[in-house]
TrEMBL record:
This is ABC transporter. The keyword Cell membrane applies. One of its GO terms (cellular component) is plasma membrane. PROSITE patterns: ABC_TRANSPORTER_1, ABC_TRANSPORTER_2, S4. Belongs to the ABC transporter superfamily. It is found in: Cell membrane. It comes from Arthrobacter crystallopoietes BAB-32. Transmembrane segments: none annotated. Residues 22-267 form the ABC transporter domain. Its main location: membrane. One of its GO terms (molecular function) is ATP binding.
Amino acid sequence: MPTTTDSETAPESGAPATAPAIRFQDVEKRFGDNVVLKDLNFEVSKGDRVTLIGPSGSGKTTILRLVMTLEKATGGYIHINGEPLTHELRGGKRVERSEKAQKQIRKRIGMVFQQFNLFPNMTVLENIIEAPVHVLGQSKEQATRRAMELLESVGLPNKAKAHPLQLSGGQQQRVAIARALAMDPEILLLDEVTSALDPEIVGEVLAILRRIADTTDITMLIVTHEMQFARDVSNRVLMFDGGRIVEEATPDVMFTEPKHERTQAFLHAVLGGQEGQIGTH
């Protein structure tokens, strides 16, 4: 299980060279009286691919939203490459960092959402170059060159002038992947990226993500219900239930010999009793 660290020892500002890409330290997230995450401690090393599995409502997507600063933790600390993300320990107190500091770190992180989140009034090309131009300060020409390379890599070189609503769901998700990669992120967050797709086009999107995993050193934090994809891509798999990690293992162990009863029951329900055979055919 991940090592728990007392929040009183949370480091002041300053990033050690060997710091993990992502570190959750005693993180809590509440929505009113509902505690979604409590005493969450885990790390993702640079270049690792870590997949979070578990039932709906177990806190998996909330974790991604915290890393993307779409939500703020109500307790504890999140560090990106050793730097505090939204809060830091200063003078013995938990203090929120400036929006400017948060934005600087957020530039290193890309996210692909369930529902694509493309701007419908913009063309595909405009969707991809928007952030590189306005956030990274790239020239339009530089951003466009990179966008066209990425569209080629996701199999959509002829869709640059199309609008999102002219594309299929699978095509929109491929554009969303290209848009995330256009920021040259060090960390890529994937939130159930195939859940809104028709079953027959899930494979084409997963193939692109497998290729990214095989050909880059981008750190990935993944939430998915595609267990075969989780096994193929991940270095580690974390099983969540009730906002806590109940089991952590390599994919081979998690999907063939899970130890925790809750993990066994979840995988049996998801895989129909085939958890011991996944990836073996």
